[in-house]
Specification:
The protein has about 425 residues and is an alpha+beta fold. Among the domains are: about 120 residues, no CATH class; about 100 residues, no CATH class. The chain has 17 helices and 13 strands. The strands form four sheets. Strands 1, 2, 3, 4 and 6 form a five-stranded antiparallel beta sheet that branches. A four-stranded mixed beta sheet has the order 5-10-9-7. α2 crosses α3, α3 crosses α4 and α7 crosses α8. The longest helix is centred in the N-terminal third of the chain and has 27 residues. The N and C termini lie far apart (about 50 Å). The model has no long low-confidence stretch (mean pLDDT about 80).
């Protein structure tokens, strides 16, 4: 079903979010009333809230929907009802209708799609949080035309300020504790809405990763790209999720998994510039089983000092967590503070020591089997401890702001490799 209109004014978008907040409040009142009558459950409350929030976010698209997409990738952070609803933001968004698409193209290039392309699909091939993709053709060349939803860039900051109370309530932190992290998210989302910046990012990644085996990239048509439209050659194949659903043989799953691993390790350890949005919709598996990378909006520059401290922790993962080097590195990464009590420090060292040991495990063997569900269960159990331990929840939010997109990249990559069931070569990848 296509969406015929979208709220573009700040007042209109604010009204949608306020209305969603009112529905959540009504759900809580209904829940408390049912509790008095020994009816209802916390699961029902979460399902109702998740549906109401996702409906509003989906209609607004942009920042609210992007936040939903990000939250859906943290299975261990949110209740299952939210994850199930918000995961739709990855590839099940209602697209805009063709008249709205035509208007955006005309505003960018002064012509209708039919005057630019020999063929242009009226229906979107894919719709995501910030834009949707149409298929076009000029001569024999097929193109993917990514079109940004109207109002997304202009209202992003006001949208984020309105959804911050909702997000902080779901995550269980105080707003003041999340200030630097919200600022990081806002900065990245502003970059994602700037398609000129995405074009610049794509050229940087393609040039830096062009020699990695098994990776293919689109070519960009800069004459038909603007701050709100990007035109690139069409890469044929299946989305990573659809390809996995076809149950390919283990050899090909390992091949795609190795390409993903090599692609990300090269970015992290060589370029210090990463594709920080590793969800299945951003990858295509071609008919000859190569990995196509099709989206470059969310990129993260890794500061040298953060990189060295983080990789040092991974390498120290099997060492004594109370060693001076381990504690000093945690302090560098803002996970320990001089204000912490001895009890606080012991608690943090125990939790994060085990977490870094788990995350670093693939690097300590020549090969690693990402189909090992017990490994991921251990990671999720550690995440459960972090989110549910009452002592930890009493502490302020921890860690450098750079953790947000760096961890998102690592855990997103690991989840993709787990879905693939890939068994790949992983050892010896440090350039410290």
């Amino acid at each position: 079903m296509s969406q015929e209109k979208i709220a573009v004014s700040k007042i209109g978008r604010a009204g949608k979010l306020v209305n969603a907040g009112a529905k959540v409040g009504a759900n809580y009142m209904k829940h408390y009333t049912n509790q008095l009558l020994n009816k209802g459950s916390k699961d029902t409350l979460e399902e109702d809230n998740a549906k109401d929030l996702y409906k509003a976010f989906s209609e607004l698209k942009g920042g609210p929907l992007k936040v939903a997409q990000m939250l859906s990738m943290g299975d261990q952070i949110l209740p299952k009802a939210y994850v199930q609803q918000f995961s739709k933001a990855q590839n099940q968004v209602d697209p805009l209708s063709y008249p709205l698409v035509q208007k955006i193209i005309r505003k960018s290039f002064g012509k209708n799609p039919g005057e630019i392309f020999d063929d242009f699909s009226r229906d979107a091939a894919n719709a995501a949080s910030i834009g949707q993709v149409h298929k076009g053709k000029i001569g024999k060349t097929e193109y993917a035309i990514k079109i940004q939803y109207p109002g997304v860039a202009d209202s992003l900051q006001s949208d984020l300020r309105l959804i911050t109370p909702i997000a902080t309530r779901m995550l269980g932190f105080k707003k003041q504790d999340l200030a630097q992290y919200l600022e990081e998210v806002e900065q990245k989302l502003l970059e994602e809405t700037n398609y000129n910046k995405e074009l610049e990012n794509s050229n940087k990644i393609i040039e830096g990763c062009k020699n990695i085996e098994g990776i293919v990239f689109p070519e960009f048509n800069e004459a038909l790209s603007s701050d709100r439209v990007i035109t690139m050659t069409w890469i044929h194949g299946d989305s990573l999720s659809d390809w996995i659903a076809k149950n390919p043989c283990q050899e090909f799953k390992n091949k795609i998994g190795q390409s993903l691993w090599d692609f990300y390790q090269h970015q992290i350890h060589v370029l210090k510039f990463i594709h920080a949005d590793p969800h299945p919709g951003n990858f295509i598996v071609t008919p000859d089983n190569n990995l196509g990378v099709i989206d470059f909006g969310c990129m993260k520059e890794i500061p040298e000092d953060f990189y060295h401290s983080y990789t040092k922790l991974l390498m120290l993962g099997e060492a004594d967590i109370k060693s001076k080097e381990f504690t000093s590195t945690l302090t560098e990464l803002e996970m320990l503070s001089e204000k912490d009590t001895t009890e606080d420090k012991d608690l943090i060292l125990g939790i994060f020591g085990q977490m870094f040991e788990l995350v670093g495990k693939p690097f300590f063997s020549e090969h690693f089997d990402f189909s090992d569900d017990s490994y991921f269960e251990s990671i999720f159990e550690q995440g459960e401890i972090f989110t549910k331990d009452s002592n930890l929840r009493g502490l302020s939010a921890r860690g450098s702001r750079h953790f947000i997109y760096f961890n998102r990249t690592y855990f997103g990559l690991y989840q993709l490799l787990n879905k693939l069931g890939a068994h790949i070569k992983t050892g010896g990848v440090f350039w410290i």
